[in-house]
Amino acid sequence: MTFFAPAASPVSVDERHARIRVLAEALKAQGLSAMLLGPTNSLRYYTGLDWHPSERLTGALVHSDGRVQYVCPRFELNKIAGVTGNAYAVAGEILTWEEEESPFALVAGAVDAGGRLAVDDQVATFVWLGMARAMGAERLADGAPLIVAQRSVKSATEIALLIRAKAITLEVQRRTRRWLKEGVLTSQVKQFIDAEHRKLGGEGGSWFCLVSFGDDTCLPHGGEGDRALKVDDVVLIDTGTLVDGYHSDITRTYVFGQASEEFRRVWEHEKQAQALAFDAARIGAECQSVDAAARDYLTAQGYGPDYSLPGLPHRTGHGIGLDIHEAPNLVRGDATPLRAGMCFSNEPMLVIPDKFGVRLEDHFYMSETGPVWFTEPSHSLDDPFGENV
Q: What positions does the domain Peptidase M24 occupy (predicted)?
């Protein structure tokens, strides 16, 4: 079977400038002087700078007038200047601090006198505490509402990157099923998946790869051992890759051999729950209504109730983009209205304790008229990738 992954262009610097303009207007509307972005994916989202977290503060200030200032240790100046000078990153003044100096005082001095500072919600606690000491906690605000409001609605460029990433992972899942053999270890399957992701243009898959055999599939995040595959084992593989920082995350569950009648029944219930969740995703509906559609169906089949087992032990889905798990989520209590551009996983897992678990995970995005699958859901238990259709 020939595989083709749709092409996708990186996020342009013009798109990042547009994001910053939207953020600046939101800051102004909230009476905030600036947003401090730490070494998180929000820093990458707005500026294009992809920086590793450490015990030192590196980040950016986005001001309400649209200015961008980077903050970094003095010894990182040349590296930051090089990265932010490329064609896909936003240029800006670079503020530096020496090792004996306080980066928090440096940031505080760059904020308007008496102004309030929003802080990226994903920064380490030491950043918030340091800024509170430097400015006073009363001048700090949670930046999450502003960031989530923007990042949760993907552009056409972002959706194209997600489409490419997910197409690659679905093909890797298909190849993995065909490659499996009796006695193979979960660690060997992970190595195979990583190599196949790289062959197809993804940024590897070893950073996120869950492979479970047999009753380890009862555990939503898998067992701890390096288990060997046996004939008639249930196989659950949950994996993904990155394309320009955007995530895929796809799960398939099937049997290496002959499935029991009980497993077949549960698998069909899982597939139907996933389909009902998809159908419930409508523009303007609350995120929690999608979870309710899957959970109510499963309760009617005798599972649960709620998060009780046998049943669905976790939310039906999560947002996805630059982070593999992003707000909002398809979960009870999340009343966020669904909007065009929002992207979610759809994975209402069923766990039968001490026997097996079944998770079918695909993702969808919201178009103006409703949900659209990124990847085609499992065709059937015996032909999960529709190869015999």
A: 162-367
User: Hunting for tokens 């029944």 — which residue is that?
Assistant: 265
156-373 topology per CATH: Creatine Amidinohydrolase (3.90.230)
Largest CA distance in the chain: 70
User: pLDDT of 305-350, one tens digit each?
Assistant: 999 999 999 999 999 999 999 999 999 999 999 999 999 999 999 9
Which structure tokens are listed for 237? 């593989």
Per-residue pLDDT reduced to its tens digit, 68-123: 999 999 999 999 999 998 888 999 999 999 999 999 999 999 999 999 999 999 99
Report the C-alpha gap between 14 and 261 in whole angstroms: 55
- Scanning the structure block, which residue is given the tokens 């953020």? 23
CB-based contacts of 5, cutoff 8 Å, min separation 6:
164, 167, 168, 171, 200, 201
Of the chain, the end-to-end C-alpha distance in Å amounts to 13
How many whole angstroms separate alpha carbon 316 and alpha carbon 278?
A: 10
Q: Which amino acid, one-letter code, is at 170?
A: L
Can you tell me the distance from the alpha carbon of 199 to that of 214, in angstroms, rounded to the nearest whole number?
A: 29
Strand, coil or helix: what is 286? strand
pLDDT at position 208, please?
Answer: 83
Model pTM score:
0.96
**Which CATH number does the domain 13-151 belong to among 3.40.1180.10, 3.40.350.10, 3.30.70.1450, 1.20.58.340?**
3.40.350.10
Helices 13-29 and 144-151, interaxial angle, to 10°? 140
Percent of the chain with pLDDT over 90: 95
Can you list the pairs that 203-207 forms with residues at least 24 positions away whose Cβ atoms lie under 8 Å? 203/241, 203/242, 203/243, 204/241, 204/242, 205/169, 205/172, 205/239, 205/240, 205/241
**Do residues 253 and 364 lie in contact, with contact meaning Cβ atoms separated by under 8 Å?**
no
pLDDT at position 69 is: 98
CA torsion through residues 331, 377, 162, 41, sign: positive
Three-class DSSP category at 58: coil
Domain boundaries, the chain: 13-151, 156-373
Average pLDDT rounded to a whole number, residues 360-385:
97
User: Do β-strands 34-37 and 117-119 pair in parallel, antiparallel, or remain unpaired?
Assistant: parallel
**Amino acid at residue number 206:** S
Strand partners, 185: 228
What is the distance between the alpha carbons of residues 191 and 121, in angstroms, rounded to a whole number?
34
